[in-house]
Structures are given as structure tokens and as C-alpha cells.
Amino acid sequence: MKNLVILISGRGSNMEAIVRACANEAWPARIAAVIANRPDAAGLAFAASHGIATGVVDHRQYPDRASFDTALAQAIDNHAPDLVVLAGFMRVLTEGFVQRYSGRMLNIHPSLLPSFPGLKTHEKAIEAGCRVHGATVHFVTPTLDHGPIVMQSAVPVRTGDDAAALAARVLATEHVIYPRAVRWFVEGRLALDGERVTLTPPEAQWLFVDEASVEENAKTGAQAVKAGASTHAGEGA
């Protein structure tokens, strides 16, 4: 039985997807805690309603990034995590914090890494004339939005798309690939080989959403965006 600690800053729609998948699919795991860096993070109410311990480490109460990370690590370690899951956590973490959870911290980023690290990924993809765009689940390393890739999803970029429409389409796929990647970790199927991730037994580590299904998938994402969930790991997804 693996202990998972999920970090959020806002609604935490990816956190919700993971919580539901863990329960519905009977993972050999428990969501030990959901911790936010903002006391008004809406996802805390969802977690509490599902019987999950919650906590707040308000970054505004600390004089610098290092002291905040120290307090956050203490709050996380109180739950003896096997895996730390970043699900819309709006803080850049220090190298020491990342190294503390090396090989056992996952993030999801709304682009096909290594393309478009950082913020405003959907705007960047449209401006660059991309024909496909997507999301990436990866192990966290000290370099922002970088690390061994576990799984990716890809969706079409349509003529006339704005950032919101593209964001909704991508977010719907995030809710599929992130729980799947976390489950693989829980089941002991992931192994790190330098910058590469191997999955045993092998299966597709990608999700392509074709034109026939993209509209239906986008509906869920659109609802989440309208409810205030951002699609960037640093913006509260």
C-alpha cells in the first residue's frame, strides 16, 4: 500500500481525477494528504469531502523560498509519502526540495515537453503554428518543467483556436494520463534509466486524441476551465 501526497494551489482538477481513479480502480494506494500553499485553494474542500487529510503551508508566511520549502517538506513527511504528486502547484521548488524527493515526485505540464516549458503554453503553441499540442507527465528534476517523461497526450490544434479552447482540449487528456501514470508508479511498473523511463510490462506511454473523440473529451476540460481550473502545473490545474 503506497502513500500519496498531492500538492495543489487551486481547484486541483487533476487531483480530483487521481482521487477518483484511485478509488474506482482500487489502487494499492491511499491518498494520505492533499496540501495547498493557499488557504483558499478550492481543492481542499473536495479532498476533505472524500475523507482525505488536508493541510496548508501558506507561502506568504515565509520570508524566502528556502524556508517555505523546509516547512512544506515537514508537512509532507508527516504522511510518510512514497510519491509526491504536483497537481497545479503554483510554486517553483528549490533544488534541495526536489532532490529530497528525487525519483518519487511527479508533475504534469501542459505541453509536449521539451517544447514550451514555463507559462502560457497554449498561447505559445498557437503562435508557433503547432499542428498538435498536448501534455506531459514527468519526474521532477531541479530544472523547471524538465525531467524523465512518463507519458504524453496529444490533441489537434484547430484553425481558429484560442488559448482557452486549446486549454480545454488538453486538460481533458490530462485527466486521463495523470492518473494512469500515477497508477503505474503505485504498481511498481516505472523505472528510471538516466533521462528515460521504462514501463514494465510495456504499454503505450502516449495518448492521441483523434478528431472523432476530441469534442467529447473537450467538454470536461471546458467545464473545468470555466470553473476556474488553470491548465498549467504552476497555475492551479
TrEMBL record:
Q: In which pathway does it act?
A: Purine metabolism; IMP biosynthesis via de novo pathway; N(2)-formyl-N(1)-(5-phospho-D-ribosyl)glycinamide from N(1)-(5-phospho-D-ribosyl)glycinamide (10-formyl THF route): step 1/1
- Residues annotated for N(1)-(5-phospho-beta-D-ribosyl)glycinamide binding in this entry: 12-14
| Active site annotation, chain numbering | 109
**InterPro entries, A to Z:** Formyl_transf_N, Formyl_transf_N_sf, GART
Note whether Zinc-finger occurs among the keywords. no
Site: Raises pKa of active site His. Where? 145
A Pfam entry, by short name = Formyl_trans_N
Which example biological process does GO assign this protein?
'de novo' IMP biosynthetic process
- Write out the residues that bind (6R)-10-formyltetrahydrofolate: 65, 107
Q: Please list the reactions this protein catalyses.
A: N(1)-(5-phospho-beta-D-ribosyl)glycinamide + (6R)-10-formyltetrahydrofolate = N(2)-formyl-N(1)-(5-phospho-beta-D-ribosyl)glycinamide + (6S)-5,6,7,8-tetrahydrofolate + H(+)
Q: What does the UniProt record say this protein does?
A: Catalyzes the transfer of a formyl group from 10-formyltetrahydrofolate to 5-phospho-ribosyl-glycinamide (GAR), producing 5-phospho-ribosyl-N-formylglycinamide (FGAR) and tetrahydrofolate.
The UniProt similarity line reads:
Belongs to the GART family.
Which PANTHER family does the record associate with it? PHOSPHORIBOSYLGLYCINAMIDE FORMYLTRANSFERASE
The name under which this protein is listed is Phosphoribosylglycinamide formyltransferase
**Biological source species:** Paraburkholderia sacchari
